[in-house]
Design goal:
It is a single chain. This protein is of the alpha/beta class. The protein folds into two domains: 216 residues, Rossmann fold, CATH 3.40.50.300; 59 residues, Alpha-Beta Plaits, CATH 3.30.70. It is 37% helix and 28% strand. It has a six-stranded mixed beta sheet with strand order 6-7-8-3-9-10, sandwiched between helices. A four-stranded antiparallel beta sheet has the order 2-1-4-5, covered by helices on one side. Helix 8 packs across helix 11. The chain is globular, with a radius of gyration of 22 Å. The relative contact order is 0.13.
C-alpha cells in the first residue's frame, strides 16, 4: 500500500431513523496511516456512521468502502481487517483477561499457539501483564477499556475504530490512553476516533471532521481549522446580563464574537486585537487564552458542547 492510499471512503451516505436524519449526505476519505477524528456532541451521528462502517447498520443511500471493500455487501471481509472498540465493552465478565482475548482470536481463525503470544504482547503494551489471569468483572472501567482495545488488536487489523474510548475515564487514565494510541499511530496503524472531547482530538488527530445533527460542518487539520474559523486567541469574559448588550455594542463592529447569557467569547486573529479589545471593554472575570477546537465548534454551530442535546 502506498502512503497516500485511501483506506476509508464515505460517499454521499445518509441514514434515517423514521423521519429523523441521523447522518446526512456525508462525504470524506481517510488515508493510510492517518489518525482521523469525528467530533461532535451526543446525537451528532458519529456512532451511526461507525456502525455503517463495520456493517452493523445499513445506510439509506450512499456507499462506504473500507480497504476497497463495500462495507455492506462485503461486511464479513471488512470485519476481518478492522478492529473495533465500541462504547460498551462486550467482554465476557466471567472469564479472565487472557481467556477473553484467546476466545476472540478464534473468531478470526487464529491458532492458540499464535494467539497466546500475541495476547501477551498486547497486554504488555497496555501495561496489564500482571492482570492476565484476573476475572474481567473484577476490573475497573479503565482496565476493561484496555482489554477491549487489546481484543480489537488481537488479529493485527489494518484499521482501528474507537467509539468514544475515553468517556468515563479519569484524567490520568485518559492521558495514559492517548500515549498508547499515539504509539499505535507511529507504527503505521490507521485510526478512526469519535469523541466529544475537543482537547483529545486536537492532540491526537491529523485531521478532524466536526459533525452536528448528522451533517459534516467542516474537515481539516485541527490547527488549520482553528486558524480559519477562530484565530490565535480568545478573550473570554463574564458579565451581568444587563451589561452584556452595552459591551457587545462596543465590539460588534470590530471583532467576531459568540455570546451566551452572561458569557461572551471574542475571537482575535492576532494578539494585538486582544489588547485593543481589552482597552475597550471593562468587564468582570476576563481572561485571554489560546483558541481551540471547541471555539471552532461554537463558531460553526452557534452553541457550546454543554448546550448540545
Amino acid at each position: 500500500m502506498s502512503q497516500h492510499e485511501i483506506i476509508v471512503e464515505v460517499k454521499n451516505v445518509t441514514r434515517k431513523y423514521g423521519s429523523r436524519t441521523a447522518v446526512d449526505r456525508l462525504d470524506f476519505i481517510i488515508r493510510k496511516g492517518e489518525f482521523f477524528g469525528l467530533l461532535g456532541p451526543n446525537g451528532a451521528g458519529k456512532t451511526s456512521l461507525l456502525k455503517m462502517l463495520f456493517g452493523a447498520l445499513r445506510p439509506n443511500s450512499g456507499q462506504i468502502l473500507v480497504l476497497g471493500l463495500d462495507a455492506q455487501r462485503q461486511s464479513r471481509e471488512v470485519k476481518k481487517r478492522i478492529g473495533v472498540v465500541t462504547q460498551e465493552d462486550w467482554l465476557d465478565p466471567d472469564l479472565s483477561v487472557i481467556e477473553n482475548l484467546l476466545i476472540y482470536a478464534r473468531y478470526f481463525g487464529i491458532d492458540e499457539n499464535k494467539a497466546y503470544p500475541r495476547a501477551r504482547e498486547l497486554l504488555r503494551f497496555l501495561q496489564m501483564e500482571d492482570r492476565t489471569d484476573d476475572i474481567v468483572e473484577s476490573l475497573s472501567g479503565g482496565m476493561k477499556r484496555r482489554v477491549s482495545i487489546a481484543r480489537a488488536l488481537i488479529h493485527t487489523p489494518q484499521v482501528l475504530i474507537l467509539d468514544e474510548p475515553t468517556t468515563g475515564l479519569d484524567p490520568q487514565a485518559r492521558i495514559w490512553l492517548w500515549s498508547r494510541l499515539e504509539e499505535l499511530k507511529s507504527e503505521g496503524l490507521t485510526i478512526l476516533l469519535t469523541t466529544h472531547y475537543m482537547d483529545e482530538a486536537e492532540r491526537l488527530c491529523d485531521r478532524v471532521a466536526i459533525m452536528d445533527r448528522g451533517e459534516m460542518k467542516c474537515i481539516g487539520h485541527p490547527a488549520e481549522l482553528i486558524s480559519l474559523y477562530v484565530g490565535s486567541e480568545v478573550l473570554e469574559f463574564r458579565c451581568r446580563p444587563v451589561e452584556q448588550d452595552y459591551l457587545l455594542m462596543r465590539v460588534k463592529d470590530k471583532y467576531d464574537f459568540q455570546s451566551f447569557p452572561g458569557h461572551v467569547r471574542l475571537f482575535a486573529k492576532a494578539g494585538s486585537e486582544v489588547k485593543n479589545a481589552l482597552s475597550i471593554l471593562s468587564a468582570e472575570d476576563m481572561r485571554i487564552r489560546r483558541a481551540n477546537l471547541e471555539d471552532v465548534f461554537i463558531r460553526i454551530t452557534g452553541y457550546g458542547l454543554d448546550d448540545a442535546t
